[in-house]
Each structure stands twice: as C-alpha cells, then as structure tokens.
Write a structure and sequence with these properties.
about 150 residues; alpha+beta; Nuclear Transport Factor 2, Chain: A; four-stranded antiparallel β-sheet; 3 helices; 4 strands
Length: about 150
C-alpha cells in the first residue's frame, strides 16, 4: 500500500517535471531568443546609423569609437514600437553618451524605422513626440534581423 502511494507520487512528480520541461522552459527560451534578436537588431542599426553619418551632428566631425550600446526599453504605442537606449562613445580623449529613440512601424508586412532621434541628454518620448523626427532610410531595419539558430 505504501509502495503504491510512493509510486503514484513519483508518477505525479514525473508528469509535473515533464510539463515544466516541455512547455514552460521552451516558452521562456523563445522570449529570451526574441529579446536577443531585438537587441542585436537595435545595436546593429545604431552602429550603422552613427558610422554612416560619422555622427557629425553629435561630435562635430571628431573621430569616435562606439564602446557600448544599451537597449533600455521597448514599448508599443499603437502601430509604433519605440526602442530607447544609449550609446557610449570614445571621442578623441573622453567618453560621451548619446541617448537614442527610434520608432519602428510595419509597412506592407515589413518592419522599418520610421522615426529616429539622438540627443546628448537623457529623455523620455511618446509616439506623438517621436513623429516629429521622421527617419530617411539610410540603414534598413530588416537587414539586421539575424537568424540565431
């Protein structure tokens, strides 16, 4: 009798662990993978944009090197996904930080950057404010989606 109860408890534990391994963990890893893809896309886009423009507006033509790019937040407002973050750069002989916000919209089933703003001071921005900074596509957002598999 006690053996049967132990066997039933062991079976229940086995079923619970199986459920956790096959349903919960893959869902978590999918979210993590999706986040990593988004983060990598954001970082690559910022590198492209700053190097293509030589960050002339921000460093007055001085040579710079991107040290680190941080993705702070991703927020959906209506049909715009807003990415905010910062870029740490080494400019001549000192560190400078740029704060970035960009808005990605879906156009004909393709995601593209529609709005983009960079400032030297930290800021928060809403979709309605971001619309004041339309982006003329130099770097394509969709080319930075990486297949991590």
């Amino acid at each position: 009798m006690i053996f049967n109860i132990k066997l039933q408890i062991t079976g229940i534990i086995y079923v619970c662990l199986t459920i956790i391994l096959f349903w919960v963990i893959p869902a978590l890893s999918f979210e993590e993978e999706d986040y990593e893809k988004t983060k990598q896309c954001y970082e690559n886009f910022i590198k492209c944009e700053l190097t293509r423009t030589d960050a002339d507006d921000h460093f007055n033509g001085k040579p710079f090197k991107i040290i680190m790019i941080n993705l702070f937040n991703v927020v959906r407002e209506g049909d715009i996904v807003i990415f905010t973050g910062a870029v740490n750069c080494w400019v001549v002989d000192k560190y400078e930080k740029l704060y970035v916000a960009l808005g990605v919209k879906k156009v004909l089933d393709n995601e593209q950057v529609s709005y983009y703003v960079v400032q030297k001071k930290d800021f928060s921005i809403l979709a309605t404010e971001l619309m004041n900074y339309p982006y003329k596509e130099r770097c394509q957002w969709r080319q930075y989606w990486l297949d991590l598999n």
